[in-house]
Specification:
The protein is α+β, with helices and mostly antiparallel strands and about 230 residues long. It is about 30% helix and about 35% strand.
């Protein structure tokens, strides 16, 4: 859990040169993302964290981003945000092309734009164009589908729930983690099935003493949902 807390929103892409991919959720849909390549002159992980926090504060505001980080760092269960991204694909230091990676319909996909086929400049341009088109395609939602966002209140089988995490890019309507307000706030996963939100499963929280305080902090931050009162802390 300690490693997961330290690397929240960071993914180590390669072991050899300490390259990190960092992602920040947008207020609408999708992610900001950027890769930081390891070098002898700087700490790529530290640079990635600084960029993550800078973009996060610009997108969400300083206080709300701090809360989002707190929630992510203290949650033992968290699905990875799924994004579309591209990177330089090398083998033993030789650039073979640009690789685009994405997740669709529950499966991982990749497409390589080879320098041998396109040339260096055109391979990079083609990869970025494909990346943008694929991201737009995955973001497209039929108007009958809801677009869940962190902080929204939804009704799940008669229970008013607060969305605290959205697993981006997994399906037309991404699954969410929610909390519902009882005397002991509890979080569960929900999915969109047959035109309505339904419970998926309980989150396996383990024996973390700070979990209830974490959920109460979220309820306090978003104050009260439709028709319910959050407990005083």
């Amino acid at each position: 859990m300690i490693e997961a807390q330290e690397n929240y929103c960071l993914t180590k892409v390669t072991t050899r040169d300490n390259t990190y991919l960092t992602r920040v959720p947008r207020q609408e849909r999708g992610l900001y993302h950027k890769k930081f390549f390891g070098s002898k002159r700087g700490d790529s992980k530290l640079e990635a964290k600084r960029w993550r926090d800078q973009i996060g504060q610009q997108e969400w505001g300083k206080d709300r981003w701090a809360l989002i980080l707190f929630i992510g760092k203290t949650t033992p269960f968290r699905g990875d945000w799924k994004a579309v991204y591209s990177y330089m694909y090398t083998v033993q230091g030789v650039l073979l092309g640009w690789r685009v990676v994405w997740r669709e319909e529950g499966e991982n996909h990749a497409k390589l734009f080879k320098v041998a086929d396109y040339g260096r400049a055109k391979a990079k341009k083609a990869a970025h164009l494909f990346e943008n088109n694929k991201r737009s395609e995955l973001r497209f939602h039929n108007h009958t589908f809801p677009t869940p966002k962190v902080g929204d209140w939804i009704t799940v089988q008669g229970e008013q729930c607060l969305i605290v995490n959205v697993d981006e890019g997994c399906s037309d309507v991404p699954p969410c983690e929610v909390i519902y307000n009882t005397k002991t706030p509890t979080n569960r996963n929900v999915v969109w099935r047959k035109g309505q939100w339904q419970w998926e499963s309980f989150v396996n929280l383990g024996d973390y003493a700070d979990e209830i305080d974490r959920l109460k902090m979220y309820l306090k931050f978003f104050k009260e949902g439709p028709g319910i009162q959050s407990e005083p802390i």
